[in-house]
Amino acid sequence: MFEITKSEPEGGQSGAARVFTFFRDRLLAGDLKAGDRLLAERELALALNVSRPVLREALRSLAILGLVDIQHGRGTFVRSADASVLGQALTLCLAPEPNILDDVLQARIAIECQAIRLACERASERDLQAIASTLDKLVDSLDDPERGGEADYAFHLAIVRASGSPSLMKIYEAISPLLMRSHIERRRDTFREPAITSGLVDAHRSVFLSLARRDPDAAERDLRDHFAIGDDLRRRNLISAYEPKRKRS
Amino acid sequence: MFEITKSEPEGGQSGAARVFTFFRDRLLAGDLKAGDRLLAERELALALNVSRPVLREALRSLAILGLVDIQHGRGTFVRSADASVLGQALTLCLAPEPNILDDVLQARIAIECQAIRLACERASERDLQAIASTLDKLVDSLDDPERGGEADYAFHLAIVRASGSPSLMKIYEAISPLLMRSHIERRRDTFREPAITSGLVDAHRSVFLSLARRDPDAAERDLRDHFAIGDDLRRRNLISAYEPKRKRS
DNA sequence: GTCAATCCGTGGTCAGACCACTTTAGGCGG
DNA sequence: CCGCCTAAAGTGGTCTGACCACGGATTGAC
User: Which terminus of chain A has a lower count of CB atoms within 10 Å, N or C?
Assistant: First the structure.
């Protein structure tokens, strides 16, 4: 009669919360690997001593966090950790803040400046080639705003990847959705004059060269200059948008 | 006969997922503010045209993300955005990586170095006083490892707060749990000799002074030196632990 | 007036049934 | 013998209605 019913707290939680932490800890401990298939809901509910609705509450929560993938008619599978949920969580946390689309650039600068310092130490030849390759794409797509934006992002992402730091990488991925939105909103005002784009390539190239020369201080300085120019450009655009009288003013 | 039953996709999702996104979007849009109380589950289920279990799956997911607070016998309330869930998500994402406790320090350096640059521009007198206050606590608690650790963390947190950047702040809070674990693990090896602690105070003080002088380059340099010393210390400790023959070697 | 028991509204859980989707196994026709 | 097609089995998806557990307010007794 020592059944594990309500008489035992089991960690203080009960019901769905208990099942949720059960699976989460199994995930963290590595008992469940990506691709593993869970038992059917009915069997799991039986095994864990809860009803099916309760089990489903827990599974649904795990699914929201991207830890499992529930497929109708097929089963529930363990998923590898996903950075997209991080991005969503960050977006939710930052949502109430004003001007978040501008502020998130600060996080970007923070990550990239540290990443490029690490990259100067750690980047392999393969990493450098990958960055150089994105630089080529950037040059090729000067006249195409769409592809150009992608190439720009790819360049910076390649730098963060070259840092070899999972933490920096994950955080960078997490802020990417917000960065995208920020980028889109900025491009709405910036009409991308040719003079600017050519300077853009130069800026990227000098960042890359400093990195290839394994000079952390120079690389960070180039990167900061690059960001400062973008910032300045945005400011000037804002001014020129309001200084001459507008129709709806 | 144009009821909103299964004939209308309603965004492609159905059931719990639909309810979840419904509330999430309301949260993002600001229609629901922190502290607001939701309708009772039975009424909500009726209003949203779903059964109570389905509604509960959605609510439970929202609760996991820290967006609502479900209280037995009282009701369900909207919660203000919580960084703790961010920390958990980050921990989950980074869990499979090796040496994550060391690597997360890179993220810390990234955030703090950018934060202190911003703080040099933006910090108010009140911010500076807050930082100075934590510095005093640090001095007071030199002989108490527990309080000393807290004061140390408070000092760095105050700097990030003084940056006035919500993004940096949230990300710093997000990595805090991992930072704590990292700190604990490191202290397990570091026997905190008096000579070190005194140098620690000097390092913090010079960081603060450069910040108070509004000198971004000097402040970042001081900060990086501070981190480098800690890193070096850890390395040296590791070496001294393995260099003389150990029992279990 | 104070304290207690009671009642009501809330979330928490359960059981069983049925629906929808996917896969597979078997039968039927070629 | 091969291939297609249908039916069945297994899975998640949903619903219904009931009951339990907790918190607070109301009401009653002292």
Answer: N
Q: Judge if the beta carbon of B245 is closer than 7 A to nucleic acid strand D.
A: no
Mean pLDDT of chain B: 87
Counted across chains A and B, CB pairs separated by less than 8 A come out at 149
Identity at A44, one-letter amino acid code: L
**Which residues in A lie closer than 8 A to residue B113 (C-beta atoms)?**
110, 113-114
Q: Which residues 28-67 of A interface with strand D at a CB distance below 7 A?
A: 38, 40-43, 52-53, 56
Q: Which is nearest to A135 in space by CA: A121, A116, A156?
A: A156
Residue A111 class from Cβ within 10 Å (0-12 exposed, 13-18 middle, 19+ buried)? buried
Element (H, E) at A95: none
- Nearest Cα neighbor of A24 from A75, A58, A74 is A58
pLDDT tens digit string along A78-94? 998 778 889 999 998 89
- Cite the beta strand spans of chain B per DSSP E: 68-71, 75-78
Report the distance separating Cα B235 and Cα B224, nearest Å: 16
Domain B16-78: CATH class, spelled out: mainly alpha
Is residue A170 within 8 A of residue A189, CB to CB? The reply is: no
Residue A67 touches partner B, C-beta closer than 8 Å: yes
Kindly report, as residue ranges, where domains of CATH 1.10.10.10 are found in chain A.
16-78
Looking up tokens 């950018």, which residue turns up? B114
Give residue-wise pLDDT tens across range B116-138: 999 999 999 999 999 999 999 98
Answer with the residue of higher pLDDT: B164 or A186.
B164
Q: Does the beta-carbon distance from B95 to A175 stay under 8 Å?
A: no
Mean pLDDT (chain A) is 87
Tokens 């439970």, located at residue: B60
CB A78 within 8 Å of CB B75:
no
Q: How many whole angstroms separate alpha carbon A130 and alpha carbon A226?
A: 20
Span A85-242: which CATH code?
Answer: 1.20.120.530
pLDDT of residue A26: 93
Average pLDDT in the A54-79 region?
96
The span from the CA of B138 to the CA of B153, in Å, is 10
Q: Does A238 score more than 60 pLDDT?
A: yes
* Portions of chain B given CATH number 1.20.120.530: 85-242
Please say if the pLDDT value at position B6 is more than 90: no
3-class state of residue B13 by DSSP: coil
- In 3-state terms, what secondary structure has residue A37? strand
C-alpha to C-alpha distance for A245 and A226, rounded to whole angstroms = 31
Q: Which of residues 211-240 of A touch strand C (CB under 7 A)?
A: none
